[in-house]
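tool_call: predict_structure(chain=1)
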Amino acid sequence: MNTDYTFDSGTDLGRFQLDHLSLLLDGASRDFIGEVAAHEGQRCLELGAGNGSIAAWLAERVGPTGRVDAVDLDTTHLDDVPGVRVHRHDVREGPPVDGPFDLIHARLLLMHFERRHEVLESLARELAPGGLLVLGEFTRPPTVPFEAPTESEAELYHRLLETTIERIARPAGQDYAWGYEADRAMIRAGLEGVETAEYRHTARGGSATCRLISNYARQFAPALTALGWTEAELDRIHALMSDPRTRIGFFPFVCIRGRRPLDG
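tool_result:
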């Protein structure tokens, strides 16, 4: 199975994707981390750092006595993140710097890896005693819109999601069940106090959420065309995502955290 990333974050479309993911998910990520971790003086590792929004927030939280290391395969958007040490690195090869870390955070990352269980276990070993591992993952979204201008457009949207999830994303290695498996995987890795929270929302056409879906369709366009989609159908998808009569359910976002035992 191929486990390369589905998207190229170094393109303009990739930057749009990263910025909109930050807009939609950073609040939930900050709330879930900030309840229990990222305190002054702590050492943090941010994996799959994207545009650096969470890494920058972590740097503010830990202050000058702490340290934040941010890791991504493409560090194009991480050059100007203050107070953050940037590493261009593949996490599947292990952390780029030695721990221990008080916090390791990875968002929308392990769901791409075939060996995700092994990666999680390796990250757990890099935690300091009492240190926290926090993951954020997408799970399978509703593929039928809650509202659409016509039945044919509702069916077109359903076909878009089914095609991209089942015929493009899944063969590329993405696992939309992983978000629900990670809780048990953390327990098996020896972490304690494991907790999970799930965030769901619906969105109208024209919203940041629907603009992101349209962006995904643009990035998938070559693969969709190869699977028989026409330019007219893709244009209809973009129009549908701009139409306020449309209402969709976005990808459920699952956050999972577990702590290394103090005597571990």
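agent: Strands lie at 43-47, 67-72, 85-88, 101-107, 127-138, 192-199, 202-204, 247-249, 253-259. Proceeding to next step.
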